[in-house]
């Protein structure tokens, strides 16, 4: 209802369409070419929100801008805190187009997931169930949001190294056991992290080809 009463112009031109904001429930990103326009949009959103009893939490509202705009400010009662990156819908975003922070987060969540099922897998003697749990819990944690990633070979290698380490942890195989990764891959049914990443990218590419923007 709030956005129906706002008629923003400007924003950023992406493939011929002007994008002024992204939103999912109350997670909202305003997109602008300059801070003057951004501040105006923010105040308009604040005013429209108040008409239906909604209020912007200024403490949780952050400003992220390109290097050319550094030093400029946006106000909503107080000056918004400027950040180098922020997490939106579960993914770390930044203006450097760097995947480093997000890959750090994904690997960290992957290890948390790996450790959460380690004891369960230790009591199972079913390779298919091992694979199902690893693929659905651990790999999904590592690859969350993968459809929008653009990885270098070095970044792909980093994910591969992380997955191989997780496989060894689950199988309780250490480097001192002198078991090669190829041998481990031969006896398990875990999906390969990079193959899964690329499959998802291809599926997403097909989806974005739909002419009605679905």
Can you characterise this structure?
This protein has a two-stranded antiparallel sheet with strand order 1-2. Strands 3-4 form a two-stranded antiparallel sheet. It contains six helices and ten strands; from the N terminus they run ββββαββββββααααα. The chain is of the alpha+beta class and 214 residues long. Helix 2 runs antiparallel to helix 3 and helix 2 (100-122) packs parallel to helix 4. It folds into two domains: 3-83, no CATH class; 100-208, no CATH class. Residues 1-93 form the Reverse transcriptase domain. This is Reverse transcriptase domain-containing protein. InterPro entries: RT_dom.
The domain count comes to 2
Detail the poorly predicted runs.
none
Shape: elongated
Class by helix and strand content?
A: alpha+beta
Strand order of the largest sheet: 1-2
- Which series of helices and strands comes N to C? EEEEHEEEEEEHHHHH
| Main beta sheet strand tally, sense and closure | 2 strands, antiparallel
Oligomer: single chain
Please provide a brief summary of the model.
It is built from 6 helices and 10 strands.
């Amino acid at each position: 209802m709030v956005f129906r009463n706002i008629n923003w112009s400007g924003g950023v031109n992406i493939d011929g369409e002007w994008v002024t904001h992204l939103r999912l429930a109350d997670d909202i990103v305003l997109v602008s070419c300059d801070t003057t326009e951004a501040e105006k949009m923010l105040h308009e959103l604040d005013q429209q929100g108040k008409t239906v009893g909604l209020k912007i939490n200024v403490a949780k509202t952050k400003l992220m801008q390109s290097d050319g705009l550094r030093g400029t400010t946006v106000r909503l009662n107080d000056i918004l805190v400027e950040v180098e990156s922020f997490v939106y819908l579960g993914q770390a975003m930044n203006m450097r187009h760097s995947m480093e922070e997000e890959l750090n987060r994904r690997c960290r969540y992957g290890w948390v997931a790996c450790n959460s099922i380690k004891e369960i897998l230790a009591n199972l003697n079913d390779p298919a169930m091992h694979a199902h749990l690893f693929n659905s819990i651990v790999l999904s944690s590592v690859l969350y949001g993968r459809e929008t990633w653009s990885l270098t070979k070095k970044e792909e290698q980093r994910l591969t190294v992380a997955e191989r380490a997780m496989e060894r942890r689950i199988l309780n195989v250490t480097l001192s056991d002198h078991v090669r990764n190829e041998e481990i891959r031969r006896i398990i049914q875990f999906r390969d992290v990079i193959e899964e990443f690329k499959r998802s990218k291809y599926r997403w590419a097909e989806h974005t080809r739909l002419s009605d923007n679905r």
